[in-house]
Design brief:
The protein has helices at residues 5-10, 13-22, 40-50, 55-71, 74-87, 97-107, 111-124, 148-161, 242-256, 319-327; strands spanning 131-135, 170-175, 178-180, 187-189, 191-198, 202-207, 212-217, 220-228, 233-237, 264-266, 297-301, 307-311. It contains 10 helices and 12 strands. The longest helix has 17 residues, at 55-71.
Length: 337
Amino acid sequence: MASFSGFIRKSPPVRLRDFLGARGVLADGDFDWCSDGRGAAFVKSIEALIACLPDAKQDVVKAELELLAELSSDDGMSGVAHVCAGEGIDLEGYEGVEDILLMLAVQFDRVMIDRVQVQASYLRKSGGKQWARFQFPDDGTQWVLDQQSAQDAFLAETVGILKLPAHRKREADWFHPARTDPVSGADIQLTQATIYVEDHAESELAFGETSLERHTRQKVLEVGVVCDPKERIVEICAKGGHKIRDKYLQAFSQHFAPHSTPPVLVPRRNVRLEVLRSAPALATVPADGIERVEVSSLSFRSTDGAFLMAEKRGADETLYQFLKRRFGGASPLQAGG
């Protein structure tokens, strides 16, 4: 069964029909878009519709469905929320991430899906080695993030940093996602750029009409830049280590903040572990019929490899009460380190 079968089963019938119809996948008037249980039989019926397309078109539709299925995750939903908030798209009333992704794919063609994919990748890499965060001093100077000449110059310098010939194709997608502040809950308006540059070509074998043929495949390099002008923070994602990221930072400073004092490298995010020291308040909605929600286990891992897992056993006390009774002042919730 196709790797996107779960996505198909969870997709609202009308939205899925509109998405497939926009790509030339047509069904008879009596086609059952609400098949009982929306299980394997329903997925096979959708695959049969796709199979009516020419072979090349089938591959395109299936590849797009696989991408949407990949994005229908927690990171994908967060990416959707960030991108849509920045674009002013109201997500109220949709039936989940599948519904929203199909809507974006139909109404906004590929550009919004690409942005969601970049944003989801950004969220997944938040703690990764390719990202670095830099803090500019608040010296009152203005950045020129929206100046076209600065954007063009920064894009041109990217090709030089990557040590590619000047004729390589390049493209930059500048957009404005919104990130939710974990403390205040307010939306933080960001300026984000994903830069695509044509890399050195690769030679690979592929099936031709009658035999194997050697094809040339053009690869694409990506560079990510996320700016918070209000907090004067820039985050950069690029392969090649800190020396390469430092070059991008110098280019950013030169073209977008030429009058600012050079920035300093800072940790990428603040981890507020103190919220775990006491039982969190987990709100519920009475209409959901949930009697209570509580933390049943906590896992602790130190940088030297030590590991501890505390799990609730008795029904007459919470995990936090158990840890206090068992360990007192030596509880891992109270101890340092």
